[in-house]
Every structure is written in C-alpha cells, then in structure tokens.
Amino acid sequence: MARYFKEQDIDEFRECFYLFARSGQITSLDELTVVMRSLGMSPTIQELTGYLKGKGGKMSFADFLEVMHIHSRAENLPHEVVNAFKAGDNDKRGVIPSKQLRNLLQNWGEGLSSREVDNIFREANVSNNGIVHYEDFVKIACAPVPDYY
Questions:
Q1: Model pTM?
Q2: Locate the EF-hand domain: which residues (predicted)?
Q3: Is the pLDDT of residue 148 over 80?
Q4: Residue 123 · residue 134 · CB < 8 Å
Q5: Mean pLDDT across the stretch 6-14?
Q6: DSSP string, 123-140
C-alpha cells in the first residue's frame, strides 16, 4: 500500500488505527466508523459493513490500508461539493454571492469561525462583497495542504 499513500499519511493512519483498535485489529463496525471518520472519510454504513464483511469481520492494519485506498478512490469530495452548490443554483450560473457563501460556511454543519472563513477567502482570492465561481472555489478549498516537511 506504500505505493498509494505518502509515508506521512501511512503514519497518520497507523496512529489513528491503533488508537481505536487497541487489540491490533478492527473487529466492530463502530471501530471502523470512528477510525475512518477520524481520518476525514465519509463512508456510508453500507460501505463500512461491506468493508468489514469483506475482511471476515476482522481487519488488520494492512487490511485497513487496502480499505482506505479503495474508499479514497470512491470518495470524491470536490465533485460532491460542486454538486451540492449546483443543486442550490436555481439559475445555473455557476456562481454564489460571497456573503451567502460566508453564511453557509459559518452556519451549516460544523460551522467555521469568522476568522477561518476570512483565511479561506484570502487563500481563494474572494472579496467580501463579490461573486464566487463555486467550481473554482471548491478546487482551491479542497486542494491538499502543501507538504513543507
């Protein structure tokens, strides 16, 4: 699995895996759910059940890396976010007012602070009173954080 992930990612996966799978194996749906969601994945219950059944109800770290690879290829967060924007774009213009975007980011789901939104807007070159092309915004917001290690 080393060919699919950076060494730093594998270290993070290992640390999280052994934090929640104290016996050295994942043996329950709850453990798998917590580990994958802690690592930023959003698998459905059906996907999680399938992964665990596919490994005979027990999952070693090597099995977990394989599951992470499979799931990371299936989960396409930027595409899902763009589709969510499109669903709310009644005029099909591909834009959203920055004030509305700020409101969404601060008040929906795990709301961001005003400072966090300011940082994202600065990174994405978004003015506070402008119009945002949401596909471009999503590309910037979902881009991997540069690795400066």
A1: 0.58
A2: 83-141
A3: no
A4: no
A5: 92
A6: HHT--TTSEEEHHHHHHH
